[in-house]
Task: structure prediction
Amino acid sequence: AGNLDFPAIDAKWRLHLQSPISRAWLPKFYICSMFPYPSGTLHMGHLRVYTISDVLSRFRRMQGYDVIHPMGWDAFGLPAENAAIERGIDAKAWTESNIAAMKTQLAAMGAGFDWSRELTTCAPDYYEHTQRLFLQMHKNGLAYRAQSMVNWDPVDGTVLANEQVSPMGLSWRSGAVVEKKMLEQWFFKITKFKKPLLDDLELLKDSWPERVRTQQKNWIGKSEGAKIRFPVFLGGEGEVVEVFTTRADTLPGVQYLALSTSHPIVKRLAATNEALASFVKEADGNKDFNKHQAPDGKPKKGFLLPGVDAQNPITPLSGSLPVFVAEYVLEGYGNGAVMGVPGHDTRDFAFWKENGAGQGIKSVIRPLNGCESPGPFVHPGVLKDNCGEFSSMTTKQAKRAIVEKLRSKGEWAENTTLWRLRDWLVSRQRYWGAPIPMVHCSSCGVVPVKDEDLPVLLPEGVHISGKGGSPLANVKEWVETSCPSCGGEARRDTDTMDTFVDSSWYYMRFIDPKNKEEPFSKEKASEFLPVDIYIGGVEHALLHLLYARFFAKFAHFIGLWPSGGGPGNKAEPFKRLITQGMVHGKTYSHPETGQFLKPEDLSPDLKTLKDSVLTPTISFEKMSKSKHNGVDPAACISRYGADATRAHVLFQAPVSDVLEWDERKIVGMHRWFGRIWGLVHALRYHTQDEAICASDAPMMLRNRDEHLLWREMQGTVREVTASLEETYALNTVISTLTKLTNTLHSLHPLHEMPKNGKGMIGLQVRYRAAETLLRMLAPIAPAFAEECWEALHIYIPDIAGTKVLERPWPKVDEVALKHLDEVIKCAVQVNGKVRVVIEIERTKAEDTKNAISYVTKLVMQTPEGQKWLGGEKEVQQVILPKGWRTINFVI
Ligand code: ANZ
Ligand code: ZN
Result:
């Protein structure tokens, strides 16, 4: 490939690639990749996701689908605001220049998007409709205000959603330790849709990654169990503590109760008990924000409440139970109280070891079969003899019997279902977001802005300090307005919406991006939704996808998407989800100290440390500044060309796996391209005959070798097509095409006649194989494929003027393929060594009674058979295993 200047080829075809044409005769096909935040530069994750979506969309266009492949910008959010705070740059100008830069980079990677559909979430013509959807939520009782204990990020000075707080209680944005604060906030009632959000995951069973569905399921967190009420005595007074449990069957094994720090009883006692108050304060400091993701061995700390004891309602006479305040009990889940069963729950076990004053552990359940092992037994089983009337019941039976007994004794228990999902807190005390379209009037209360008064424009040129509450509160002339209801003086809501709101519906806007009156029209929704393939990073598996599913169901609910995707779909927005894996960078570290090395710490060939004989340790890790392993896609593209970079991205790993970026391997792609270029050149002088090149010319196969080549080609088309439309095994597309390239490359040169007449493969088959290869190459390496297409047809101006990307995707020659399926390849071994591979027709193989003599006859018809088995040679034994894949001659 020495004479190939790939960056120049990119440049030559860039314009053509940027605005792809759909010559559609098939229905719509909507491919969407998650739109980027306009930070200013594309990173490797972007390169990977947009390569995948570009390849799939070019492939579908060639197949004849009316492809929608849009691109936009998730342009509201903190980085712009921080740039404004830290460097005094205007958030809007900053965002716009970043968008311009990234658009150029997308073009440089050879990507083709429908730029006519471009949208930007921070543009008034977009956020007007975000606000309209907010009003719709409000009108339908799904947007409401509530006092709420919020997660307060003291560094960014803003409220965070629960989801933006790490399991360790750190801010997802700034990394600061999150505090708690009471504020009046806006919420979306996502919990109204909890059931369909959970149940409809089932519809996605075969088309979404299992891991993503599980994460969503856990987050929604449906939990079936029971409420059980415990009589509690404190200071002579009787009270009741209600707990939630999924294991009512373990009630006979309860050894204590544990309350959360904000339980009413705890609050009351803490007012007069200093030690308790300080315990509560400390425990609140290291709150377990996220029980389901909390690592093991999390807080076991407890505080025994003095003078408080509880009774087990099922065995009230069996003595009293201690009551603790415990860090691990969540205030927002169930009743903020737990019945402690050390014998059968891991956390309770750990807690009791720490706080049980050396008391033993009561075990009430044994395995159905098999013996007991040390530690808590957490699985279902059979109740032991120490459980009175419930003894020898199974877990399932006992759950029902115990709840029923307590219920009949006077409402001491009741079956119930708990959900983990909370309503979505959407207000942010931030500037760079869509203003919440609400007005506060002293006489009318909170009043929605009139639909015709949208958008509520975000004021420009606002000075943002980054301190305190909402920056908008300081823009007096903006805040002061008149009440939409009574016309009197009123104030605008000064919060903006969580940027997750913007990205929850953008894929619906893409189908009707210029619509002024509505977010999108019903007709377009029915025509273009759902998205056929959605591609993006697995880091969005939870929140973004959950919110997007919520908005799709909401759109259906208010009649904006009446068809909801047709029968059986139930308004699921993304038919198929592909989550691409991360790109890891090659990381060099010091073999002794383990310290990460910069390129300048290494010798020029990177094999040793600079001025040393030590070899660096090499690993692949998440790209980061501190590891000096970041790779800039733009630099890579300008060095190797977009096509080799794209092919490399696809080839190095299956789409969902981690991709270990090793730049040196790109030369493998260059070598492959070089071989294709060689083929094209060898052929083009011979293809001056238009009749041969006409795609409708009947294919004349004149001998066995032509048949074989033709068949191999059909197999390739079938495999590549299946990978692009069913399995998304895009790495195998490259290897399959490489294989075909190698076959074509190994044919004897056209101008030489082979001596034995073997391999007499004529021009027509060769040409058709080459042009089919180019068509399959086109989605992956579009610029290079166009260059080859032009070169191949240089003497046929009619075709040279066409574009390979506008050609139809190759169809499989079914007849040839049928043959391929019907033929068994049988390796002929002589004394264990393979000498030739022959083909046996499957039907013949099945019909033949005397298989060995039939196959031997075929073998003897080949020159190799004659050579190794003919003449004087004496065959002692023939072994032909079932399936006819091998035949072994012992001579
Ligand atoms: C007794 C018990 C015995 C429990 C046993 C489990 C196993 P999921 O499945 O996530 O819903 N629990 C209840 N409320 C809690 C709270 N506010 N904070 C922390 N933990 C709480 O979990 C339900 C289980 O979590 C409940 O069942 C309870 O412990 C605990 F062998 O009750 B279980
Ligand atoms: Zn009013």
Notes: DSSP finds 29 helices and 32 strands in the chain. Residues 288-297 have pLDDT under 50 and may be disordered. The radius of gyration is 35 Å. The longest strand covers residues 222-234.
